[in-house]
């Protein structure tokens, strides 16, 4: 029989590994928002933008898989405009369907606008550390990534959960699957290793 204490340690191991958070937010060249079917994804972007930490918001995501007549990034752009953020302060990528495509399809738009991108604030769900690595892989000039995380509602029942309550949520299997998938990608070298520091995520130096 698995003891409650042992189960709690396993849960902590999973949460620690998939957790995208890192201490601090700082000045950045842009804010990058991964595609999402939920409007909540833009709240951290608006907050960071209004704080003056970055002058540009990159919105990604193509047709919403639940509402195909809606484009995720367009929905997010309209929400930001309703909060007073001007269209010229956003780049909108409208074709992507995966995290990798979010970055790949946004990259040409970013490179047309900016000469070099060294630092990014990325908006991700708290358990989507994988997307931080995907961003680093797709934007190789980036040296530092700050994470602005948000807590999604569970897909099955819509109940909110966070780092402290995920294990009893209906999304538990998704997060356990994310743990195994990210572990595999990193061990195979499919994603670049990153270090969680007191000032965001940075690329891990060889031999470190």
From TrEMBL:
Segments forming domain DUF218: 29-135
Domain of life of the organism encoding this protein: Bacteria
Residue ranges of the TM segments: none
UniProt cross-references to Pfam families, sorted A to Z: DUF218
Biological process per Gene Ontology, one example term: Gram-negative-bacterium-type cell wall biogenesis
Region (Disordered): 188-208
GO cellular component: plasma membrane
PANTHER family, A to Z: ENVELOPE BIOGENESIS FACTOR ELYC, INNER MEMBRANE PROTEIN, PROBABLE PERMEASE
Name this protein carries in UniProt: DUF218 domain-containing protein
Taxonomic placement: Bacteria, Bacillati, Actinomycetota, Actinomycetes, Micromonosporales
């Amino acid at each position: 029989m698995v003891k409650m204490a042992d189960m709690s340690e396993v849960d902590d191991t999973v949460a620690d590994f998939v957790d995208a958070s890192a201490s601090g937010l700082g000045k950045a060249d842009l804010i990058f928002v991964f595609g999402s079917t939920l409007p909540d994804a833009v709240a951290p972007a608006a907050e960071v933008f209004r704080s003056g930490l970055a002058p540009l918001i990159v919105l990604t995501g193509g047709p919403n898989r639940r509402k195909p007549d809606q484009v995720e990034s367009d929905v997010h752009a309209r929400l930001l405009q309703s909060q007073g953020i001007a269209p010229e302060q956003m780049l909108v990528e409208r074709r992507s369907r995966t995290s990798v495509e979010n970055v790949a399809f946004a990259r040409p738009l970013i490179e047309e606008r900016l000469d070099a991108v060294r630092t990014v604030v990325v908006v991700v769900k708290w358990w989507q550390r994988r997307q931080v690595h995907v961003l680093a892989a797709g934007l190789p000039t980036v040296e530092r990534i700050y994470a602005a995380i948000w807590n999604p509602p569970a897909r099955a029942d819509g109940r909110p959960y966070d780092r402290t309550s995920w294990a009893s949520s209906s999304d538990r299997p998704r997060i356990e699957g994310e743990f195994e998938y990210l572990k595999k990608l990193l061990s195979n070298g499919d994603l670049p290793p990153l270090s969680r520091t007191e000032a965001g995520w940075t690329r891990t130096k060889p031999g470190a």
